[in-house]
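Onboarding guide, step 5: your first structure request.
Type a short instruction followed by the sequence, for example:

Predict the 3D structure of this protein.
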Amino acid sequence: MADKIIALVDGSMYSASVCDHAAWIAQRTGAPVEVLHVLGRREGAETSDLSGSIRLGARTALLEELAALDSQRAKLVAHRGRAILEDARALLEAAGVTEITTRLRHGDIVETVAEVEHEARVILIGKRGEAADFAKGHLGSNLERIVRACHKPVFVAARAFRPIEKVLLAYDGGTSAMKAVDHIARSPLFVGLRVHVVTVGTATPEAKKGLEDARALLAAAGIQAETGVVTGQPESALGKLVDEAGFDMVVMGAYGHSRIRSLIIGSTTTEMVRSCKVPVVLLR
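The system replies with structure tokens like these:
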């Protein structure tokens, strides 16, 4: 089915938020949810040779013992993965989702997403993963890799779910920004939400026309959007606007032709996603 919500969970504190957001999307779109947990290739396997330069008989016995330990470790990791999936299923069921599947995969998470994304309408991932350094505010190590590789919308869940009513669309007139407008216009997810289309820069005739084109496209889909221009650097101006105006979600193209371009391909992206306390939907 090419209309699934694929939710990536890793057992981190963000996994619950991913499930909450997946349930919200499912309730608004009617799409089924697939929960995916990926075991890394090295997870549960000890690759170093700990036998050292000892005599052959003892070495053989030790290698056999290490192999048994590796097997046991791999079983425990797989058991933990299944437990993570069952916890996610329970959260989704409690939220009223009825169509749920779970999938446990081995391999690289980006390669796995590339294999399954044709089945998805959206990919959900937490802002940070299990190994994130919260003290330093590090983003999940796989987040940007997935966004760069994924051709479907990537929904980056914030730390906790809150009701979503007001949406900020960061717009720069580029191809991916227009794709973001089209996505909002076509998706039942945004029906009834308040949408504001905002560009960063100066209110030039070209910028105003771009905003009006975006507004008209949304209006044709039954979404009455407001438009505006803010000055400053994208990451700080948009982040400030999100906080001060009380936006619940940000939607943006992953690539563009202006300063907003750096919001996904450079350090500005990291800062934007890190600083926003609301979910961010990225399209490329």
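Each response can be followed by summary notes, for example: The longest strand covers residues 33-39.
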